[in-house]
Design brief:
Blueprint: E1 5-10, H1 14-25, E2 30-36, H2 39-49, E3 53-56, E4 59-60, E5 63-64, H3 65-75, E6 80-85, H4 89-99, E7 103-106, H5 111-122, H6 130-142, H7 157-167, H8 172-179, H9 183-197, H10 202-218
Parallel strand pairs: 1-2, 1-3, 3-6, 6-7
Antiparallel strand pairs: 4-5
GO molecular function: DNA binding
Keywords: DNA-binding, Phosphoprotein
Protein name: Two component transcriptional regulator, LuxR family
């Protein structure tokens, strides 16, 4: 019998990891070799368990899934990465693929689709929804897409991460500690975000970040 493909789960929600582990361990061709709630643990387990694929969420304890994907590709280039997230694929899928992921799937998708996506990337193919595929094709052909019309889409990966943490209610100091960067660096990111979103001051920035964060949770 062929050797089972090893899967590392990286998600800060224990119930999601439990659901994924049960789903994957029921398959005859794959097994879960480790679970992590944050990027440092994930990187440690990658070295220990040597998985074939890592399933990564965008939001993690004390860090970003996008940054983790970049680190995985730099340190463990042979590991395939697929994103499974609740976050808007129209905003995050292209970022994830640019970072090195081979697929993006929403958590709301049916179990069958999740398994289909995992097997697809394990076969060396890319996996995104039809909606994302159309967006990326349009961007390639005409140079722009509906998603890039949003001011939020103009933020860099790090700026979007800071914006998201502001929306979760973290202070500038807490964001600096969370991302392991300096207080002044966070302030610089906030200044660039305000400029790109055409916001007048810190109060408007905070209000817009909270509004956006809440809208992401309810979509």
């Amino acid at each position: 019998m062929a050797q089972k493909r090893k899967v590392l789960l990286v998600d800060d929600h224990p119930l999601v990891r439990e659901w994924l582990a049960n789903l994957i361990n029921q398959q005859i061709d794959m097994l879960v070799c480790g679970e992590a709630a944050n990027a440092p643990t994930a990187l440690e387990l990658l070295g220990q368990t040597k998985p074939d694929i890592a399933i990564v969420d965008i939001s993690l304890e004390g860090g970003s899934g996008i940054e983790l994907i970049k680190n995985i590709k730099a340190l463990y280039s042979g590991v395939i990465v697929i994103v499974l997230s609740m976050h808007d694929e129209m905003l995050y899928a292209e970022r994830a693929l640019r970072a090195g992921a081979r697929g993006y799937i929403m958590k709301r998708e049916a179990t069958k689709k999740v398994l289909q996506a995992i097997r697809c990337v394990l076969e060396g193919k890319l996996y995104v929804s039809e909606k994302v595929n159309e967006m990326m094709t349009e961007k390639f052909v005409v140079g722009r897409s509906p998603a890039t019309d949003s001011p939020i889409a103009q933020l860099s990966d790090r700026e979007l991460e800071v914006f998201q943490l502001l929306g979760r209610g973290l202070s500038t100091r807490q964001i600096a500690d969370d991302l392991h960067i300096s207080f002044k660096t966070v302030q610089a990111f906030c200044a660039r975000i305000k400029e790109k979103l055409k916001l007048a001051n810190a109060t408007e920035l905070l209000r817009e970040a909270i509004r956006w964060h809440d809208s992401q949770r309810t979509e």
